[in-house]
């Protein structure tokens, strides 16, 4: 199979770091030199500098049993102490850890001292409930401070959390509880979303009726939604009766660096979700290192905000572990970006004086769709760094983000990583790297990646192929919970000793990496490889387009054909005939990329099918494009969307 990517948009804009930014930057070009001179020594230095070890490690990496890595294995630490107690001991207990904002507008400022005390109480309460080292605790909560407290309390006693996103169904929750054999579920009566209370405890009740293992002994319930719930006296406990009354004294024990920290389920290409397993010392080292250097964190003056839900890996690494290990002050917001008004996010940036914002391209594009007036009502001048994660960010969105949100001159870092990698792997370092819109750019110091052909040949210099990680890294997944064979099969069988990421990538003439989407999204049109991301990027670059999704649909003559689904910008949607718009976009792509990329069809639609984490489900669009019955839509944020799109396409 030829995995050459034939066409990629030329993106020639470059942005040098401003001298003012570079002068105060945390990152330093010498990090690259140190890591390339002695990679393991570099990570050992980071682990020692960024974390506090109760027992120092002597061995850095044990790779004697690949693909099962052990980092800093003879060292011992407590993850929660690293995120909390040591900051209080260092005299910054009065620093705000979390500015929490509920969707209805209620708010709380929680200092490091207060957060530490609350986690100690929760740790005592969990111990009281019989939870100990290695036990699994499922967390099914809205974005409230108790979510962070729960994760850290579980970590503090050496147990393992499995956070399940609050939007998941009872079935999904039940299968995750069963797979991990969780003995406790922490939930809330309900949470706020789009101006309404959505029930959580009732979903837990339904899930527990469906579980097969019967592993759950207790359900701990935070009162948040004040909605009516059923109560099982033998099983259910209120947080305010159990945690708030527990002792605030708790001496934390040290655990070995490889003690499991969490399981997080992520969907694979087929079959049941994979329980990605992460451990303690290496994970915390790389999340802390990247959070500090990629986001240029000055913890004494920055206000950081990552908009991800704690149900996703971005919420684990860049809401909980990275920022708290670094003693950062951050914003935590419960609700949706457009409640009660479309400018809510920007109102929060102004209210808290946010300096660093980390979000996803899908959010940026939905604000682009609304237009800049929503943003201009608010003062965003405190912002000094912007980050992006989750999918390729097309150059147009990158530029819009930098200009409209960032005021035109601040760095935008596009960060590539996965649930499996645990922490950021490819990203510019602000103040050091020249920025290139649309490219995630370079592996961070201490990380080695490469591009291979489908047969495993190295792609030398400029060219496209499959992204691999060639050396073990501290925050790498340690396996799939309960399924070592699937771990080997999914990530290591294809190229032996190299980690197969499942993403296509291209290296340009400067050695910068461009992520091209999942390889299952690479199309083959008349024997030419085309990336969905590349054609989407071209479509979005046209002034009438707000959002675009591209799929390869089976075609009798060309093997696959390019089929696009496009949402027009609001101001064009009314005055353009969809037929004309569609023709114009086909012509535009042919002109920008080449005739080979000209979409067979461009459907103008009002919505695109997205998962709850905002990823476009191209599989469903492919079903539509190929005239099939639309497949399983249960992971869509809004399951009715496909009916609406189908009606528009027919
Ligand atoms: C952190 C996260 C991982 C997949 C990954 C890739 C895509 C993430 C990206 C990106 C291009 C970026 N992805 N960041 N693609 N540029 N900056 O999103 O984890 O939910 O496991 O998704 O997301 O395809 O393989 P996860």
Commentary on this structure:
- The modification N6-acetyllysine is found at residue 615.
- The protein has 650 residues and is an alpha/beta fold.
- The protein has 22 helices and 30 strands.
- Helix 8 (170-180) packs across helix 9.
- The longest helix has 17 residues, at 112-128.
- It binds ligand 6R9.
- The site of ligand 6R9 has 21 residues, from helix 12, strand 24 and strand 25.
Strand content: 15-25%
Structural class: alpha/beta
Shape: globular
What do the pLDDT scores average to? 93
Helical residues, percent: 25-40%
Radius of gyration: 24 Å
What small-molecule ligands were found?
ligand 6R9
The number of helices is: 22
Low-confidence stretches: 1-8
For the biggest sheet, the summary is: 8 strands, mixed
**Lateral strand order in the biggest sheet:** 12-11-8-6-7-14-15-23
Q: Give the end-to-end Cα distance, rounded to a whole number of Å.
A: 35 Å
Q: Would you report the number of β strands? A: 30
Modified residues (N6-acetyllysine): 615
Binding site for Mg(2+): 540, 542
Family: Belongs to the ATP-dependent AMP-binding enzyme family.
Keywords: Acetylation, ATP-binding, Ligase, Magnesium, Metal-binding, Nucleotide-binding
């Amino acid at each position: 199979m030829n995995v050459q990517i034939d066409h990629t948009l030329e993106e020639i804009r470059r942005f040098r770091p401003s001298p003012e930014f570079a002068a105060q930057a945390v990152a330093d070009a010498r990090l690259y030199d140190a890591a390339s001179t002695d990679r393991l020594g570099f990570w050992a230095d980071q682990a020692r500098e960024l974390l506090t070890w109760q027992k120092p490690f002597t061995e850095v990496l044990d790779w004697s049993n690949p693909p099962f890595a052990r980092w800093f294995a003879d060292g011992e630490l407590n993850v929660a102490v690293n995120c909390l107690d040591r900051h209080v001991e260092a005299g910054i207990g009065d620093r705000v850890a979390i500015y929490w904002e509920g969707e209805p507008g209620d708010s709380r400022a929680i200092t490091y001292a207060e957060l530490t005390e609350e986690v100690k109480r929760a740790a005592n309460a969990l111990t009281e409930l019989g939870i100990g080292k290695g036990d699994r605790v499922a967390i099914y909560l809205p974005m409230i401070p108790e979510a962070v407290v729960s994760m850290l309390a579980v970590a503090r006693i050496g147990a393992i959390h499995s956070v399940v996103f609050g939007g998941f169904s009872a079935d999904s929750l039940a299968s995750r509880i069963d797979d991990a054999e969780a003995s406790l579920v922490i939930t809330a009566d309900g949470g706020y979303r789009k101006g309404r209370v959505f029930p959580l405890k009732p979903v837990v009740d339904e899930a527990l009726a469906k579980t097969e293992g019967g592993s759950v002994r207790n359900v701990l319930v935070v009162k948040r939604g004040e909605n009516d719930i059923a109560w099982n006296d033998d099983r259910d406990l209120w947080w305010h009766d159990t945690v708030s009354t527990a002792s605030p004294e708790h001496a934390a024990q040290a655990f070995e660096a490889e003690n499991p920290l969490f399981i997080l389920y992520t969907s694979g290409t087929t079959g049941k979700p994979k329980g990605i397993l992460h451990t303690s010392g290496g994970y915390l080292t790389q999340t802390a290192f990247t959070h500090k250097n990629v986001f240029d964190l000055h913890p004494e003056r920055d206000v950081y905000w990552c908009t991800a839900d704690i149900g996703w890996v971005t919420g684990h690494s860049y809401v909980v572990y990275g920022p708290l290990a670094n003693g950062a002050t951050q914003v935590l917001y419960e609700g949706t970006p457009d409640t009660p008004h479309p400018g809510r996010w920007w109102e929060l940036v102004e209210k808290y004086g946010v300096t660093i914002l980390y979000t996803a391209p899908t959010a940026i594009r939905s604000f682009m769709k609304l237009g800049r007036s929503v943003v201009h009502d608010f003062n965003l001048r405190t912002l000094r760094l912007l980050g992006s994660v989750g999918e390729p960010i097309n150059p147009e969105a990158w530029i819009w983000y930098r200009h409209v949100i960032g005021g035109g001159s601040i760095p935008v870092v596009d960060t590539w990583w996965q649930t499996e990698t645990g922490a950021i792997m490819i990203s510019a370092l602000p103040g050091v790297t020249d920025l290139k819109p649309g490219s995630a750019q370079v592996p961070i110091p201490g990380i080695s990646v490469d591009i291979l052909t489908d047969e495993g040949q190295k792609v030398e210099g400029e060219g496209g192929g499959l992204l691999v990680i060639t050396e073990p890294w501290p925050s790498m997944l340690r396996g799939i919970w309960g399924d070592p064979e699937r771990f080997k099969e999914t990530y290591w069988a294809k190229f032996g000793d190299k980690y197969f990421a499942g993403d296509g990538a291209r290296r340009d003439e400067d050695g910068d990496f461009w992520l091209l989407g999942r390889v299952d999204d690479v199309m083959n049109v008349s024997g030419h490889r085309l990336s969905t991301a590349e054609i989407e990027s071209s479509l979005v670059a046209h002034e009438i387009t707000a959002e675009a999704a591209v799929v390869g649909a089976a075609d009798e003559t060309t093997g696959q054909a390019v089929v696009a689904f496009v949402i027009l910008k609001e101001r064009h949607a009314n005055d353009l005939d969809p037929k004309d718009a569609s023709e114009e976009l086909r012509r535009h792509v042919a002109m920008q990329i080449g005739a080979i990329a000209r979409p067979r069809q461009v459907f103008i639609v009002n919505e695109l099918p997205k998962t709850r984490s905002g990823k476009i489900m191209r599989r469903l669009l492919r079903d539509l494009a190929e005239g099939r019955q639309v497949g399983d839509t249960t992971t869509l944020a809004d399951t009715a969307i496909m009916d609406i799109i189908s009606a528009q396409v027919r």
